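Quick board copy: two proteins, each given as sequence then tokens.
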Amino acid sequence: MGNRRKPAPPSRARMAIVTTAAAGSAVLAGTGSAGAAPKPDLATVKAQVEDLNEQAEASVEKYNKFKETQQRLQKDAGELQDEVATAQDRMSGLRERLSAVAADQYRTGNVDPAVALMFSSDPDTYLKRASAQDIAASSQSDLLKLLLDQQRRLDQRRAEATAVLGQLDTTDRALAAEKKLVQTRLAEATRLLDGLSAAERAKVNAQDGRSSRTSARETYNGPATGRAAAAVQFAYAQLGKPYLWGGTGPNSFDCSGLTGGAWRAAGVSLPRVSQDQWNAGRHVAKADLQPGDLVFFYSDLHHVGIYIGGGKMIHAPRTGKNIEILAIEYMPYVGAVRP
């Protein structure tokens, strides 16, 4: 697996929350009973949970990329293995034909030297060593050259299949490692939440207060037209559905799963992961954003949403939350793409 990007650092606002909360905890510790660890306040837990989920989401996009690569390699390996089997069948047929020629020549006492040489030793070794010039001198040159060519093709396909299977094994291990990393980070976030009361957990997992108050039944009535309108309309129809890492619908989505689904509904196929979606269209300036544009966040582009106008987007936020409308100013904006 390649070098992993470091997760994006917490925002200044989040660091301020953590620092302030930590200072408050220190004061409480000084006035409380000796040796008793203070319970983290809600702001601290919320900041930690958000950071863990942001790191998990970055790993989710890596996981999605590995999954996409795995599926491609599995397809390639299957096709190559089919080609190897077909080539082996052709080799068997050619050898049978050559055997018939050799038997006929043996009966007449006029065995071609090239044929005799081939059948007096390992056929594969002979074919690998025989030169085109040697074979050309044989009365059975066409058949022998065909067999030699087929052997070379078979060797090439075997080598390609072996290489692809090796890549697949590496990808499988990378996929498992990234999945474990996502699960570890989400488990830590869950552990922090479990230390809160039910009311506090509800506050942390509630839709962000910065997001617009929308109904899951809200429909799109915006200014976009054509394919962009279809993409935005699809995004509106998903409001209220849960975030699920690796999700591509129809009941749950992760961030790039939602944007991919939206544009697929508009007849446009986008790459699976956010980093690849960054290169799936024309880059547009923030001042020129239009509904339907893909908006990207964080330096490693691990989060993406669908712009809907008015400085807002529809996005799949994180585990524990639902698809929502959020102002783009509340996340570290990087840029936009128009598919």
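And the next:
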Amino acid sequence: MLKIAFSSIYKYTLPEGHRFPMSKYELIPAQLLHQGIIEQEHFFEPQPLEETWILRTHDKAYWQSLKELSISPKAARKIGFPIRKSLIDRGRVIAQGTIDCALYAKQYGVAMNVAGGTHHSFRDRGEGFCVLNDFAIASNYLLDNQLAQQILIIDLDVHQGNGTAKIFEQEPRVFTFSMHGAKNYPLQKENSDLDIPLEDGLKDEPYLDLVRAYIPRLLEEVQPDLVFYLSGVDVLASDKLGRLSLSIEGCKIRDQLVFEYCKAANIPVAVSMGGGYSPKLAHIVDAHCNTFKMAQEVFFD
């Protein structure tokens, strides 16, 4: 069964006019159910992550500043959300959801978190709408509990996974792969194990050719026990922050390819949704729902 992490805490209250489309976290589950892609029983609600696992990945001083709501205004501005206790609680639930998805993926082949993909969160700071780094936390959890010896992070969000790359720069058991806009945020890139910078305006076929060229090769060379896949839909042509030119269909094929390659290699894959900033909310929700649809079709139909 396709297990999906979801909690009502995912939708965080933001000021009127904020550019982050927070309502997508309610609309995605509703549309999946409405379209009959999944049933209510597919969803599970994660609990808040234990502090031990936060401190395994993030600096104590940074965590204290979040927990005590004493983070500086400058540091809060870099995150981009108003800092309240409910935001910190939200981050803990999202991160636990990604751990749970990894465990379910080992059981069923794939599992998905409606939120997550918080790849701009560093060990000692957050930025770019990211507070706690869910892939980093979940990777360390698997490694420390001997549930994986080698992990591959496939980051296809349009923005480089800079926080994840930095956290694992000295960790050979986690291979970080990022395909992202060369001229897009963050302006200062970190060094992933493999970075594929993309030129503005890249369309479906050349993008998909890169997916076809790199993903099977990485699965073969890295030999991961588990893949974390960040399936950001900010690659769409309609995205106001993306600068690429993929169609909704092209984005759907991207997800299908990743799932087919992982299934063929018998490697479990845990998915977090990542970004999407199209002015029309329907484009964001449709593209995200396609990711769930492709996982259901490839692994279970």
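Board note added afterward: The chain has a mean pLDDT of 97.
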